[in-house]
Write a structure and sequence with these properties.
The protein has 172 residues and is mostly helical. It has a domain at 108-132. Helix content is 48%, strand content 4%. The protein has five helices and two strands; from the N terminus they run ααββααα. The chain has helices at 21-55, 90-105, 122-132, 147-156, 161-171, and strands spanning 109-112, 117-119. Strands 1-2 form a two-stranded antiparallel sheet. Strand 1 and strand 2 form a beta hairpin. Helix 4 (147-156) packs antiparallel against helix 5 (161-171). The longest helix has 35 residues, at 21-55. The N and C termini lie far apart (114 Å).
């Protein structure tokens, strides 16, 4: 049999005594007593403030019977009330709004008839953008392409084929 050596390390120790139950129960009891006392202090403070508020209320007209509810707001027609109004039926209004937006996104119609501005369905707009591409801004120092600039370039060059193509395009 192998004997284990008796190794002792005086620097490493453990607590020899656990915390007793009496201090823990005393703390919990003190916490409960403090909670009850605090409850009654706050309750008394609210009663005091409520009584003070009632004492500073203006005196009610003696012609008004006690217990009757008075309303100083005149009857108002809700349709004549200025906008924005509070919504009565939020879900119905929101569903109507969404339906109108969907209809607007998926149909043709005028945006500004006098200016000749139309709206097209969003699917068709995406198809046209995919076919034509997005507009590109010219690099700095470059003259943007236009009919006038293209004609000048064609007129300045010895090749008249570009000029003829532009003239044919205008005639068509």
């Amino acid at each position: 049999m192998i004997e284990e050596p008796n190794i002792q390390n005086p620097e490493v120790e453990f607590e020899r005594q656990d915390l007793g139950a009496k201090p823990i129960l005393g703390f919990l009891l003190g916490l409960c007593v403090a909670g009850v006392i605090l409850y009654f202090v706050i309750w008394g403070l609210y009663r005091f403030l409520d009584a003070r508020e009632r004492a500073h209320q203006p005196q009610q007209n003696p012609l008004v019977k006690a217990g009757t509810e008075t309303s100083f707001a005149p009857e108002v027609d809700l349709e004549q009330f200025p906008k924005p109004r509070l919504e009565k039926y939020e879900r119905v209004d929101f569903n109507r709004f969404r339906r109108d937006e969907e209809q607007r996104l998926n149909s043709y119609g005028w945006v500004d008839e006098q200016a000749g501005v139309l709206r097209i369905p969003i699917d068709r707009a995406m198809e046209l953008t995919a076919q034509r591409g997005l507009p590109v801004t010219p690099r700095s120092g470059e003259v943007p392409a236009s009919v006038v600039n293209t004609v000048r370039r064609a007129a300045g060059s010895s090749d008249r084929s570009q000029l003829q193509k532009l003239q044919k395009g205008k005639e068509e």
